[in-house]
Amino acid sequence: MLPRIKTWVKGLLPAGVLVRLRKPSKYGFFGDYRTWAEARSDSRGYDEDAILEKVRAALLKVKRGQAVYERDSMLFDEVQYSQPVLDALLSSAAENGGKLHVVDFGGSLGSSYFQNKGKLGHLKEVRWHIVEQPGFVAAGKKDFEDDSLKFFPSIEAALQDMDPQFLLFSSSIQYIDDYRSILEKACRSGFRCIAFDRTPFWNEPDRMTVQKVSPRIYDASYPARIFNIALFKRFFEERGYALASEYDCGSMSYNGAAGRIALKGLILKR
Fold first, then answer.
1. Rounded distance between C-alpha atoms, residue 184 and residue 132, angstroms
2. What number of other Cβ atoms are within 10 A of residue 147's Cβ?
3. What pLDDT sits at residue 2?
4. Which of these, 35, 45, 191, 255, is most buried using a 10 Å CB contact count?
5. Side-chain half-sphere of 21: how many Cα atoms within 13 Å?
6. pLDDT tens-place string over residues 8-27
7. Rounded CA gap, 123 and 146, in Å?
């Protein structure tokens, strides 16, 4: 009887009231900081070695066929594709004679590579170059590197022997302090397609926050930006890129209020 009464009461309340009645989230984006340094000083940080080892252990299971899919160190029993990203990858390969050259900025130890690998087997060539922090680069070279998958410390290094065909930011650009210089560099490098997946956007001005991560993933908090979507798009339009696709990837809470931040994907083409 009680569950039915709760359902009946919820049906009488406007949606806005229901949002206010929900228990505030302890995880997501918090605060409004003036600088990256200020946000960092208010973060607990994280144990990079512990996170690296957790990601490494999970992805080794995927590589060995003991698990199907990994994201943020969590294992899943089926691959969760980002269909717009996969479609863009295949389209890029088709435009390049069946050859796919990807620079994956902040690509961990190959999460997106292993996610999409099963759909890329028919291509003539797949070269997937990951740009990461030194610890991840070292672990990647040791345990994951092969003829297709390589690890580098910078976009310039990743492009030394590869065409600037496809640049992927999968939930990564929001965690970079000097992100504009990275994006400027990407545009100057001449990438024909730049894709952003699971990136936080809203219609308010850019905001510096601290993101608190659920400990079921790993215990951490660190600086993260929320981008104004119109300004973000304009940045690329002014540099010769057109929006080919925009799609939703879910949402996150801001200051405890669920659903305030849209996680979106953008596919931009030169």
1. 18
2. 8
3. 39
4. 191
5. 9
6. 434 444 544 444 445 778 89
7. 17
- Structure-token match 């690296």, residue found: 52
d(CA 117, CA 79): 11
What is residue 7's predicted lDDT score, i.e. its pLDDT? 41
Residues 182/168, Cβ–Cβ less than 8 Å: no
What tokens does 247 get? Answer: 């799609």
pTM over 0.85? The answer is: yes
The DSSP output letter for 124 is: S
- How many residues are present in the chain? 270
Could you give the 3-state DSSP secondary structure of residue 67? coil
Which two three-digit tokens encode residue 147? 């003829």
CA-based radius of gyration for the chain: 20
Helix pair 179-189, 229-237: axis angle to 10 deg? 30
pLDDT, mean of residues 207-227? 91
Number of H helices, E strands in the chain: 10, 12
The identity of residue 7, as a single letter, is T
Q: Output b/e per residue, 113-134; b: 16+ Cβ within 10 A.
A: bbbbbeebeebeebbbbbbbee
| Average pLDDT over every residue of 124-152 | 97
Report the largest interatomic distance among the alpha carbons of the chain, rounded to a whole angstrom: 67
What's the mean pLDDT when you consider all of the chain?
90
Residue 239 has a CB neighbour count (10 Å cut-off) of 15
- The domain defined by 24-269 carries CATH number 3.40.50.150: yes
Q: What's residue 22's pLDDT?
A: 57
202 neighbors 229 (Cβ within 8 angstroms): yes
- Torsion sign over Cα 173, 266, 242, 104: positive
Q: Quick one: pLDDT band at residue 50, thresholds 50, 70, 90?
A: confident
Nearest Cα to Cα of residue 208 among 24, 41, 19: 41
